[in-house]
Amino acid sequence: MLFRSAALFYDKTPEELDAALQKLSSLKVALFKNYTGAWSVFEGSDFELTRADPDANCFDISPDGRRIAFVHDPSPIKRSTNPLVIGELNVATRRVSTLAAEKGWSYDAPRYSPDGACIACSATNLGRRHTALAQLAFIERDARPRVIGRAWDLDVEGALRWSRDSASVYF
User: Fold this and answer.
1) Do residues 122 and 135 lie in contact, with contact meaning Cβ atoms separated by under 8 Å?
2) 156 Cβ partners below 8 Å, 6+ apart?
3) pTM for this prediction
C-alpha cells in the first residue's frame, strides 16, 4: 500500500506517509491487515469505506494532517449500488461531519487542495440516470458541493490531482 500511497501523495516522503498511517492506527482510525498487506480505514464502523475495491482514492488526508475526507455508504444495509457520501474526520476530536450527501448523488475520490481550502471529487447524479457519467465537483468549507462540467461528454474518474498552487485539478 505504501507504493500506491506514495504515487497518490507524491509530495510526501515515505517516512511522512508511514508516520501518518502509524498515527491513524494509534487513534484506531486505520488498521493494517497483515493477511492482505494493506491498510483499512474505519472498517466495521458506520463510516466504513466502500467494500467494492477500496483503495487510496477513497480518502485523503488534509495538508495540515488535521482532517481526513473519505467516501462511505451511509445506508444501514451496505450494497455496491448504494450512493456514496463524503464525510470528514476531525482527527483531534474524532468527530465525523458530512460534507457531501445530496439526494440522488454519489460522490467519490475526494482530494484536498494543497492549500486545504477546497476538496475536489467526482459526483454522479444517480437519481437522474443510473448510468450517468461522473462530473467534477468542488466542496468548500461550510458549503454544498458545486458540480461543474455538466455539459462535458466525459467521465471524471478517481485519482484527481491538484496543481501545486491549488488553481487547477487534473483528471
Assistant:
1) yes
2) 122, 133, 134, 135, 136, 149, 171
3) 0.73
d(CA 68, CA 17): 14
Nearest to 40 by CA among 171, 29, 166, 155: 29
CA–CA separation, 6 and 17 (whole Å): 7
Q: Are 108 and 121 in contact (CB under 8 A)?
A: yes
Strand 105-112: give its sheet, edge to edge: 105-112, 118-125, 135-140, 146-148
| Per-residue confidence in pLDDT tens, the chain, 171 aa | 333 444 455 567 778 877 777 776 665 556 566 655 665 555 555 666 666 666 778 889 999 999 999 998 888 877 788 899 999 999 888 888 999 999 999 999 999 999 999 999 999 999 888 889 999 999 998 899 999 988 888 888 878 999 999 999 998
Instruction: Specify the amino acid at residue 33.
Output: K
